[in-house]
Design brief:
Elements lengths: L2 H12 L1 H9 L18 H24 L4 E2 L4 H7 L7 H18 L4 H4 L2 E4 L3 E4 H24 L1
Parallel strand pairs: 1-2
Antiparallel strand pairs: 2-3
Helix pairs in contact: 1-7, 2-7, 3-5, 3-7
C-alpha cells in the first residue's frame, strides 16, 4: 500500500462516524427497528454492532502496533447481537463508536511506515497486518451506512 493510498483510507476511516449519523438523520422510535429484508439487521442493531466492532477493532490496532505477532481473536457478531440486548437505546453505543474511532484515528495519523508493516495472525482468517486492519475498517462504517439507508427506504 502506498502512503497516498493509506492516507485516503485513513480519511475514509475518519469519515465513518459522519456517514453513520447522516444515514440515521431523522430516524427514531420504530424507524430504528425496520429491516431491509427478513434476517437483516435493523439500524438500531447496526449501531450496537458498530460500537462492539469499533471497540474490538480499537484493541486490534493497538495490539498490532505494540505486540510482536499478536493473535487477533475473532468474535461471533451474531452471538453479540443475540445476547447483548441490541434492542436497547442507541445513544451510548453511537457515542462509544464515535470515541473508539476517534482515539484510533489519532494513532493512525502517527504510525510510521514500519508500524504499518506490523502483523499478527487472525484466529479466523490467518495473516493480519495493520494495513489489512485499515482496509477493513475504512469501509466498515460506510457499508453499514448503506445498509441503514436501505433499511430506512424499505
Amino acid at each position: 500500500m502506498t502512503p497516498t493510498e493509506r492516507a485516503q483510507l485513513i480519511e475514509r476511516y475518519m469519515d465513518g462516524y459522519r456517514v453513520i449519523v447522516e444515514a440515521l438523520d431523522g430516524a427514531e422510535g420504530d424507524a430504528l427497528d425496520v429491516r431491509e429484508a427478513p434476517g437483516e439487521w435493523s439500524p438500531r442493531e447496526i449501531i450496537h454492532h458498530l460500537a462492539d466492532s469499533e471497540m474490538t477493532s480499537a484493541m486490534r490496532i493497538r495490539r498490532l502496533i505494540v505486540e510482536d505477532n499478536p493473535l487477533i481473536q475473532g468474535y461471533d457478531q451474531e452471538a453479540f447481537a443475540a445476547q447483548l440486548w441490541y434492542d436497547r437505546p442507541i445513544e451510548n453505543s453511537l457515542e462509544a463508536f464515535r470515541l473508539a474511532r476517534a482515539t484510533s484515528a489519532e494513532l493512525l495519523t502517527r504510525m510510521s511506515d514500519s508500524d504499518w508493516q506490523r502483523a499478527g495472525t487472525h484466529s479466523e482468517s490467518g495473516p493480519y497486518s495493520a494495513e489489512n486492519w485499515l482496509r477493513i475498517y475504512a469501509e466498515h462504517a460506510h457499508e453499514h451506512a448503506d445498509q441503514i439507508r436501505r433499511a430506512r427506504s424499505a
